[in-house]
Description:
heterodimer, A: alpha/beta, 22 helices, 15 strands, 46% helix, B: 424 residues, alpha/beta, seven-stranded mixed sheet, 44% helix, globular
Amino acid sequence: MQLTLWTYEGPPHIGAMRVATAMSGLHYVLHAPQGDTYADLLFTMIERRDTRPPVTYTTFRAQDLGRDTAELFKNAVAAAHARFQPQAMIVGASCTAELIQDDPGGLAKALDLPIPVIPLELPAYQKKENWGASETFYRLVRALAGPPAPRPVREPGERPLCNILGPTALGFRHRDDLIEIRRLLDALGVGVNVVAPLGATPADLGRLREADFNVVLYPETARSAAEYLKKNFGQPFTHAIPIGVGGTRRFVEEVAGLAGIDAAPVLDGPGSRLPWYARSVDSTYLTGKRVFVFGDATHAIGIARVAAKELGFTIVGLGTYGREFAREVRAEAAGHGIEALITDDYLDVEAAIRAAAPELVLGTQMERHVAKRLGIPCAVISAPMHVQDFPARYAPQMGFEGANVLFDTLVHPLMMGLEEHLLGMFREDPEFHDGVGPSHLGGKSYGTPADAVPEAAERAPAGPPPTPAPVPILLDHAATWSPEAEKELKKIPFFVRGKARTNTETFARERHLPLITLETLYDAKAHYGR
Amino acid sequence: MNAPLTHSPGCGGIDLHQEQGQRAVFCGLTGIVWLHRKIQDAFFLVVGSRTCAHLIQSAAGVMIFAEPRFATAIIDERDLAGLADANEELDRVVTRLIERRPDIKLLFLVGSCPSEVIKLDLSRAAQRLSGRLNPVRVLNYSGSGIETTFTQGEDACLAALVPDLPRETETAAPSLLIVGALADVVEDQFFRIFAVMGIGDVRFLPARRAGAMPAVGRNTRYLLAQPFLTETARALDERGARRLAAPFPLGAEGTTGWLLAAAEAFGVSDDAFERATAPGRARAETALAPHREKLGGKQVFFFPDSQLEVPLARFLARELGAALVEVGTPYLHRGHLAAEIELLPAGTRVTEGQSLDDQMDRCRAARPDLTICGLGLANPLEAEGLSTKWSIELLFTPVQGYEQAGDLAALFVRPLRRRALLEV
Lengths: 530, 424
């Protein structure tokens, strides 16, 4: 058993729903108890879809368990087929139905429907949402792509064709990434054969083989399917992820190589504003900003590279909740000289953020809340999805326009930080005194973990504030601050104050100093500034 | 799946249908979202799957800023394969939890579909842990979807509290118990009204803190504040308490009927009743008047959700003049809702249970002016041009009593007003 307050990923059948909902002409019959239908609202409320997901639930209850849940399932499949007339169906069980072992695949097969019915085995007690999406897409491709065949032969001068694999419903900016990547491919002179799962029909999956190669935008959902297509149709696939200017350029080069065309027209084109914005002098204050990155592997790796190589930040934390891609994230973290954090426990992530004392957090909605609590600026760069992650405007993460969006996303929280720094100069002014705190962080007083404790206590009178177990700052053993040192600490700009406090306390603890004086503060500064 | 409708006449004057098939409803775990706000030193630990954790997180709508007082102990394959002793695992998880949250005085182990199917005995676990964690009380109930629909989770939770309530002495003076989670502000309003009537000993279940749960005995008279408390009522009856039959305190009429039931049981004089209720009735009338012209004659369709549908439909029809197309409800408690059923316009179509696709067909065909439905259906129906009110808000918002009658009406008016305002 695992104690879980918030989860980064849903169960694997939610992944299957993301694939089914992305496609048209496909229907999913899910053997699931009443209540599992909550999943509809992920799509209709969070993503604001205007139709129900193409999912029929058996919604069995205790009274059905004593009777025949298998019959209930068969009736649901037959009724869904009659009502929705899909080209193909997928059938499977959610966590509870997995325990009653009704064999949805076998039951559906026995109905002998005139369409392909693809059974899904999604072990709900081992696997999670992204794995479920990947497995579902792989099973669909396997069932519908047709028998193995060699790659198509192109006449010289004929437009090369690719498939774009990976975008799903409820995906982080998949809608806009797809538009951006289509533009990029078009500029290169590469045609798009099929996009899947988003917008594809089961029949379209039968045409995948007509492409020369595959573009894998999100390995989390599409790598298994791409490997299958490589093996059976000889289609190579892309590995570069077009996040950031560097990522996009590498992607363009890789696509040009696979398509046998010249990348120069696109690489020499207008590109992104990011390189010039990063070089303009107002950006010099970004140098070495301490950044903590956490998300799905694709976004965490891509964003870490942008942060380090395109904005000049220092990566002080990098991690993912996607264990399937732990190897890739570990390799990337090693490149930044740190150890990767691979966990799906939100409390571990919170503890790691506290320990790293970053100046900016780039994470998920969960880290946004942690950062808010700690008074650290934050931007959201990855799923799990929140209604705010479906902006009305065009906001891709990928391609050159995606790099523009990322510049704004990663820098704006800090621009606010600079304004707060200026505000700090007017500290004694009655309107701007220190207790007011940064306006963009809710006007509460900001500060270090230690500062945050009394603030949290005020907010939740019901009890002491949550303190995650492995906190490196041991409050009970911390040295006492002398009033002068405490006052001096407040003169340090807020965005480095947390680090200064932690360093000074560590310094004092290591030397068994009972009292932190002005001297201790500056001794510590000199010690850590070496 | 789509079993034919069965028509069972003879339930008051209503046109009652029963339906079976796909149900688009939350399970009882959802109640944790408001119950943990109500009992301020209680923690709710779901023993379930990743789906359960995901449901509560999604139903809570947003990921809440502070650390919540609920969590899920996710069963994994090691527990299922018997590699780990589920009870030892549970003890370990609970111990970690209580160490982190020393402010917790009451812990609910909440059963789920998977824990029910694998027959994990949470009542024994609760007993064992109660002994070990003393003074923290550990209770258990099931919020599983196979046994509970949405608000039945609150019913199961309150029913679990009853055996643990202090026992009132045989000779105690009669006291009034209000049963069902209400917003604190609503409780305080009712408390003041009862005080004016001369009923001083008024208690609430659940109380705001674990240590302040009300004593119950033979001289307890109780009023249900919510229509979905079947098991809780049964447990109170077993304790010897007596239910006062009444409509539910939604709208001015329902509130008056509800208060009157208490007044009659406690021998409150007509004068005192009038003095206690007249100002509230007058204010409710003032607040409702402007909404009446907006909702009068409007066709309203309820999808089944919270069991609040029948009292709400009664309020919309009788106090605001709306026309009821269909009143869907997951379950119709004939006894507790007897007064409500009496008040519904004769011939009102009430559907108990659900066959989702068929019901959506009927809704589309009727094209009502306002559809009250769950979160999963609202946007798809809006996209088809129907105005909707998502029903979960009716449980998160204070809507009971005279002072909230106008707010309750406003919840239904807002979607119509909004549609009229938008020019895009």
